[in-house]
Amino acid sequence: MRHAKKGRALGTDASHTRAMLRSLAAAVLTNERIKTTEARAKEVRPLVENIITWGKRGDVHSRRLALAELGDRELVHKVFADIAPRYAEREGGYTRILKLGPRKGDAAPMVILELVD
Questions:
Q1: For the chain, which residues score pLDDT lower than 50?
Q2: Fold adopted by 14-115
Q3: Distance of alpha carbon 93 from alpha carbon 79, whole angstroms
């Protein structure tokens, strides 16, 4: 039973879901735009927003939180040095989801998840 478990299972067990979301967040922050399913995009969006907010704070604790979430020092440096300063004046809403329509094979709703300029 999944009592008091937040979020979508995304068709996998908890550890695989966490690893998938970590990988998707890293892909969004690296490429600034990814194509994925709507459910995955809705799950990874808060994670990306939190990481960018930590980057805006810029202190050591925030850097360690981001490193624990992403596991990649170079990517954390990119977030803190390049991505977060772009959103210094923005209070949130760093990502956008654009709907594309159903995928050909299984009709899963596809979207583009991208960072707002």
A1: none
A2: 50s Ribosomal Protein L17; Chain: A, (3.90.1030)
A3: 16
pTM: 0.92
pLDDT tens column, 58-67 = 999 999 999 9
Give domain limits for the chain: 14-115
For 13-55, give the secondary structure using H, E and C: CHHHHHHHHHHHHHHHHHHCEEEEEHHHHHHHHHHHHHHHHHH
